[in-house]
Amino acid sequence: MRWIVLIALLCVQFASRAQERSLEISTDRESMLIGEQMTMTVVMKGAASDTMILPLIEDTLITQIEVLERSIIDTSFEGTQLEQRILKQSFTITSFDSGYFPISPRIGIINGDTIASNPFLIAVQTIDIDTAKGIIDIMEIEEVPFSLKEWLQENWTWIAIAIALIALITFVVFKLSQKKPKPEKEIVVPTKPAFETALERLDKLHEEKLWQAGKIKAYYSKLSYILREYIEFHFFIPALEQTTDEIIRSLRHNPEISVEQIGKVKQLLFLSDLVKFAKESPVGSENELNFSIVKRFVEVTSSQQNQTTENHHG
Questions:
Q1: CATH of domain 19-125
Q2: Nearest 5°: phi and psi at 105?
Q3: What are phi and psi of 52, to 5 degrees?
Q4: In 3D, which of 293, 300, 301 has the Cα closest to residue 271?
Q5: CA distance 111 to 255
Q6: Backbone angles phi and psi of 99, in degrees to 5
Q7: What is the spatial distance between Cα 159 and Cα 71, in angstroms, rounded to a whole number?
Q8: Running DSSP on this structure, what letter comes out for residue 128?
């Protein structure tokens, strides 16, 4: 009887480990020299049926750490029944500043819930100078007689390019000086509430079934446009003309929007930019999840504003 209970406990423990949900970030070594490159790997584990989205890592981790390259997302399965799915993506990073740089946890999503990675430290070192060797005198400069003819022969192409550039810059400055500055565009708020328009367009997009027909780029183009238009007319932010980073900076000034909501908006807009340039191709479950993120953002923020308005009137 004891052996049966022990085997059952081991099976339960094995099954729980096989379906663990985690997000880990590691580097191929502890430190690097200034200008060298290091490989950083992001690994997310979950159940085979889970909807998993890796953290979106942009061109910089922090100000001092740059991202040079990123691999495609690799998917694999583990377990006797292939019950665990593993997503892995590698990044090539570098730095031109020396020091010890802590990297805060990155945020991923599993089944709509956020999951944080481990924090870690990147050490960037300078090149050691061997002080045991004596100081060596600098060699004297050897003077060569100047020849204008030879100088012109060697540099005539650069002289011609400089003259052409000066002429072009003069022409452009002259043309720009004749143009009148354009008046700043005003945001014209429609009479219909922004959240009603957004929800209607989301329902229409859902009926079109674009991603099911393989039209991923068109699907994310319309989904991101609906989100941008709602932000513009609901929060009075010119989101249709701003970049993703500018939109996120503007939203952070609104105290009614939570950090989690801003994070999901940033993730959706950044993913749409990647799909636009054919760098990403989300799978079916991820497309449905991103649709739900936009719809949930519209419903929550519109209800928050209505509640705030009622409190002011009360």
A1: 2.60.40.740
A2: -60, 140
A3: -125, 135
A4: 293
A5: 27
A6: 140, -175
A7: 43
A8: P
Between CA 27 and CA 40 the distance in angstroms is 4
pLDDT (0 to 100) of residue 83: 92
pLDDT value for 283: 76
Can you give the residue ranges of every domain in the chain?
A: 19-125, 194-313
Nearest-angstrom CA–CA distance, 166 and 161: 9
User: What crossing angle do the helices spanning 244-251 and 216-235 adopt, rounded to 10°?
Assistant: 40
> Which strands make up the sheet holding 52-53, listed edge to edge?
52-53, 107-110, 113-116
Tokens coding 98: 């020396």
Nearest alpha carbon to residue 288 among 116, 109, 55, 114 = 109
Measured from the Cβ of residue 66, the count of other Cβ atoms closer than 10 Å reads 15
pTM above 0.85, yes or no: no
Cβ–Cβ < 8 Å for 237, 231? yes
Q: Work out the percent of the chain whose per-residue pLDDT is above 90.
A: 38
Residue 239, classified by CB atoms within 10 Å of its CB into exposed (0-12), middle (13-18) or buried (19+), is buried
Which tokens is 137 given?
């005198």
